[in-house]
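Board notes (copied after class):
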Amino acid sequence: MTTLSYTVSDSATMLRRQLRHMRRYPSMTLMLVGLPIILLLLFVYVFGGTLGAGLGGVSGGRGAYANYVAPGVILLTVAATAQGTAISVAMDMTEGIIARFRTMAIARASVLTGHVLGSLIQAMLSVAVVTGVAVGVGFRPTAGPLAWLAAVGVLAMTAFALTWLSVALGLVAKSVETASNSPMFLMLLPFLGSGFVPVRSMPTGLRWFAEYQPFTPITETVRHLLLGGPVAHDAIVAAAWCAGVALFGYLWAKRLYARQP
């Protein structure tokens, strides 16, 4: 077997390990899915009537706001899985299993690859669950099959980028408790973008930040793909952000993992 074949085989083994952890400890997945669902129900049923009227006047309402907020909550779900990834990586680093892996004849890259692929699967399953709940509370996408496929691609691209960043955050954390708090800023960014209210409604300084932070173009791309609207500019910016974050997270994680004793 070639080096690439060994790496692929070892990565598949590490992926199976991550999937077994997900099945054995479902509470983590339930927590990551539960928070976005609670926020979705809160914003639609408690604030939806007022915020929907602000979006569309007399033609707005809870249904209009459900359509607006659902893409933002779906992106929040992707960001929430980053916390679980950082915790999982930190647990491996602090419990000694990585030291044992280093003594075995396995590809070094396979350990981090297994974490990334497992977290990516977890993120997309969580997105499917939250999307189903969103449809149940009034989200009515008008996208065709190709638009849905493109939206799923954007979500997967975002999850991939955030996963590599959260792997690095898990590696740099000194404890599991620190790792659980490090990715919290990723869950705040959708609130400070166009995920829950239009950017134009924000004060000037906050509006400038919201327009140029990564979650706004990603949210707008997903929203326009699912509900209709121009996506070209936002999609290009979103892809650039995801590529930059993924590259930064990968290089940072690779350097941290190589320096671990």
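Comment from the instructor: The chain has one domain: 3-259. The longest helix spans residues 62-94.
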